[in-house]
Amino acid sequence: MNTATAHPNTETSDTTAADLPVFDTPQAWYGPDMARRDDWIHTFTPAEIDEIDRAVRHADSTGLDIVDIGREHFPLDALRDRMATVRREVLHGRGFFLMRGIPVERYTMRESAMAYWGLGRWMGEPVSQNGKGHVLGHVTNLGLDYADPEVRGYQTSARLNYHADSSDVVSLLCLRSSRSGGLSSIVSSTTIWNELVRRRPDHARALTAPLYYTRWGEVPAGRRPWAEIAAFTPWQDRMIATYVRSAIEKSQLMSEVPRLSSFQLEAMDHLDALAADPALHLDMAFSPGDIQVLCNHSILHSRTAYEDWPELHRRRHLLRLWLACEDGPPLPPFMTGEFQRATAHGRPDGIRVPGVPLVAPLEAQ
């Protein structure tokens, strides 16, 4: 049974919090506190860049397509421990990390992609990010309309609401930054939950019941065009969060999906307001060569709208990985049941559409 459906009626005026847990875990943090620290940032040393260069040359010499490059094709020595530390902190610590200094300015697109992919393989298994089977994504403005029910925000320059993606980890490599805007913001979904419990337990309780999400026309085998997912699910001493308001709102265009109640909208508005509160979230600007790594189960991420450069070759461009991590946190069964398929290691498998092979394109599509 979907764990999230096991709760009693959540749309009530009950404002007591006696039955709602508060989580005092590493995943619960406040943005201003993090902004005063730098232990979540690592700048690659010259020796580490040399090691990445060697690994890129080795991977390139295999002649393999990027999608087929594994850890064995991207050998690391000193950086192996560094990547293990990053993975552990992202999955079981505060949930985020920033690495800086990949020399994208002297790499070709293929070399940048191989460096990024190779480091990512030391953290997890890349999974598909869309119905095209893209395991290497391109976050750039394709001139599409975000109001279209089948257009996703990363294909536009629009502001993105705080949300989580459909994998254990989401990572971004900045190749080029925008002319202005495009600021990345992250917030602890565990902290949001704790604040909801303290301020409005009725809203917190409402968000443990399933909401309906469109699948953007990217429907896995045996699944409906929508999914039922709770925004918050307490599970084995952690709060597991899954929230994409744009997908919830666009599901309302489907006649088969129940209508959102005014109370559900009120609860989501409260969640969004907390995420946008500077007392909770952490802002960061991307520079070329930066790699951001986030745990989707404990972090919501956002982006401000941006203005691009007029020249095509200068326009904002990020590469993206969704990673399944076999040592990730325990998850409620619906995450790899009703919602998604599972990898061989039982982790969320991204967006898999029948008959679509996995590909790692070197150009935005």
Can you summarize this structure?
The chain is an alpha+beta fold and 365 residues long.
Note down, in words, how this protein is organized.
The protein has 365 residues and is α+β, with helices and mostly antiparallel strands. Helix content is 24%, strand content 20%. It has helices spanning 31-35, 46-61, 78-92, 109-121, 189-199, 201-206, 245-251, 262-276; strands at residues 41-43, 96-100, 125-126, 137-139, 160-163, 169-176, 180-181, 184-188, 210-214, 226-230, 232-235, 238-241, 282-284, 291-295, 299-303, 306-307, 317-324. The strands form five sheets. Strands 1, 2, 3, 4, 6, 14 and 17 form a seven-stranded mixed beta sheet that branches. It has a four-stranded antiparallel beta sheet with strand order 5-15-8-13. A two-stranded antiparallel sheet has the order 7-16. Strand 11 (232-235) and strand 12 form a beta hairpin. Helix 2 (46-61) packs across helix 4 (109-121). The longest helix is centred in the first third of the chain and has 16 residues, at 46-61. The protein starts with 30 loop residues before the first helix and ends in a 41-residue tail after the last strand.
